[in-house]
Structure prediction request, 408 residues.
Amino acid sequence: MKTLHLDINAPEFVADPYPRLAELRESTPVFFDPVWNKLFFTRYHDIAALLRDKRLGRSILHRLSRDELGWPPPNPLTKDFDQFQSHHMLDNEPPKHTRLKSLVMKAFTPARVEGLRGKIESIVNRMLDQAEDRGKMDLLQDYAEPLPVAVIAELLGVPEEDQHQLRPWSSSIVKLYELGYSDQQAVQANQAVVEFSDYIKALADERRKNPQDDLITALVQVEEQGEMLTEDELVANCILLLNAGHEATVNGTTAGFLSLSRNPDQMNLAKQAAREGNQDFFKAAVEEMLRYDTPLPMFERWVLEDFEYQGIPLKQGQEVALLYASGNRDPRKFENANSLDLTRKDNQHLTFGLGIHYCIGAPLARLEMQTSFATLLRRFPDVRLATDKVEYAGGFVIRGHKAMPVEF
Ligand code: HEM
Prediction:
């Protein structure tokens, strides 16, 4: 096995990881990175197989203690953050993961998502009304960001006047998902978890007294019916939904617009479909944007027991990094993998994951992105990027932009 270091946070790599990922995919499909202390996988079929393998998990502390793993004591700076992680579905494995996910799914039904369609359309149109006379906007701040924040807040039941707090809390929290973060980021994220948890606890108390037609009420009722959802779990999963419910959708929207801007023939196709009100086009187009430039390009797993994968020994306690963004450009899986083709069929991309942790919010994210692209391009058929320098906001794991000025 080759050993090499992939500096995923180097600004050039964050700005365009695809050429380097293509090289690795061909020459070094698996490598050990001694700096991150992880095995990296770059090919679609390996990533997909490992995501479905129960011998890997998003957490390992249900199997082995920190002592057994030879880990240092927990970082006191992230005490509350670690607690939060231990209670939400994304960082748990069966049986706890199964219980948490099925309880949340009960409250987060397809009917509830479909019921948001009208709301999504009206938010999108309101934002475009506000920008119309200016002839320009920041696609990130004025369009991509407010929609998923307002929608997930509405779904959970966070009142409009409190919604401005969600994005700053969430941005602080997700910094800890990057590989390598500073003490200052750790302190800020921990503080955000404390404030966010207090806020959700108070809201849940309110809903216990005055039930509403929202997800927090539904979860409070699940908890009260004795279906084993503790208050810590309720709070942690609401925070998870609020974070996960917008970060990637925001980044997916700006990345999608950038991909269209850099592929004018595809932009023209999309504008034509918008003019014609072709909804089906946008279903396929959004899948392709999410494949072509993957907003969450990498996730990790722990090896839960010793085994061999394709002759590669995987040792219990070893960490594995799966480069979804690389798998999504693998020519073994996708024809013309490096081309943006908005009409692509059978687009089985890895962007929402695979296996037991498959994204709960995929139907909602799809609905939001389909509506926002179709409406933007229909109402502003001249919309175009107003800069040649698009800057990225931070690291690779949550790969988002700083701003995206557009004119129309
Ligand atoms: C374009 C937008 C989105 C992308 C790209 C995305 C991607 C993902 C991925 C890749 C995973 C699995 C992580 C892994 O494999 O380790 C995941 C899980 C999850 N996502 Fe999303 N997501 C998006 C939108 C949403 C939305 C809108 C919500 C909430 C309403 C949401 C809630 C969740 C939750 C709760 C999980 C954990 C599921 C589990 O552990 O079983 N996501 N998402």
Remarks:
- The longest strand covers residues 298-303.
- Residues 58, 89-90, 101, 152, 240-241, 244-245, 248-249, 252, 295-296, 299, 351-353, 357, 359-361, 364-365 surround protoporphyrin IX containing FE (CB under 6 Å).
- The mean pLDDT is 94.
- The chain has one domain: 2-407.
